[in-house]
């Protein structure tokens, strides 16, 4: 029941999952829309401020012209004085725009006043209203200097009101007040039009950004979709050779696809190696197990009563058990050799010292062989390899040279520098092998002559271990051979720079 509940929960989560494509689409749409909104808001506020400043300047111009005309009177303003002054046709707001125009009832009023945007009020010295172009519900408060105030609640919303005292140019006495009110009717109309256009454009921009975001998301997610499909195929069939078509791109998704393909290739190789390894191990263990089983059955039937048969069976069984023990140990060594880059990446080893040590050991163990050392190193050279691993590699190659030598018991060991690498060569004058065998000799459990190799105690894992170790330290190993004339195994390992070598030698 718990397992079924977990499955149902997974299904619900999958149903509620939002596709990455839609997340990117929504994200791109929001980002583009916010960018448009911020940009439009800045422009709109700037435009609004410019319009308000223009309206304020228009009010200021009307006030200056009226105070200049009314200031020509000597005494307190009267209604007749105001109408007479405003009735003069030479008054201009600007050189191109007259302040007065004739209406149908032959009464002159300011041009902007006739459009309903500007209202002019003239008050006497005693704050009595003498003249008003239009009636608006905005109060009057006398001021000593010109001030333009913003009225929050005007006929159409926000409005402007300018009040200034009028002084006679002749005696400098206060003769009245002028109030100019700008109802901002044209401003509000233009404001609504611009705001509507911005909102409409914003909706269009939102839809457009959504479409663009969807297209971009599909384009970006195409490699991920192919990656997902490839993973599903490999999940169903781990041995599938399905890979992602990288194409000509050079971005992070292409890098991800390349890494995924490389991972699949390595996994495929590991699967093939594992299958081959299991088959080879089962095949190699089958013979000693069969031998031991045969001797045990022989002893169980009648051989245990015969001392000769008993001794022969026990010796053969112990020999096969020893082979199995050696095989298991070599399998462990091979498994550890695959992890050298993780555990021994900072190791430093002197090449000449290890070669001399191993060379002298083999001279003592095999006195019937003639060993020759050709050392072309001018000084000690260090390589990035664990000391025991380099010694193990040399032992494997020298042991093979001894095993497969025939009439000529001679082994040649040489070491030299080749550019940034150190090259070690081990040559024997034994059986040799074909060109095909020089390639396969490093495969697990491969033996050129299985019968003779078994007789000489080989399991076919030594060269595989050596190759795995050398490649783990970024080196190379290869064989050169002529059948019936002997073989040469060459090793190349990257040497350390002189500064690193000097530091290691000082330690």
Automatic annotation (TrEMBL):
Primary residence: membrane
Pfam families the UniProt entry points to: ArlS_N, HAMP, HATPase_c, HisKA
The HAMP domain, residue ranges: 218-272
Parts of the chain that traverse the membrane: 24-47, 194-221
Keywords from the UniProt entry: Kinase, Membrane, Phosphoprotein, Transferase, Transmembrane, Transmembrane helix, Two-component regulatory system
A GO MF term: phosphorelay sensor kinase activity
Its membrane topology: Multi-pass membrane protein
GO cellular component: membrane
Name of the molecule in the record: Signal transduction histidine-protein kinase ArlS
Source organism of this protein record: Alkalibacterium thalassium
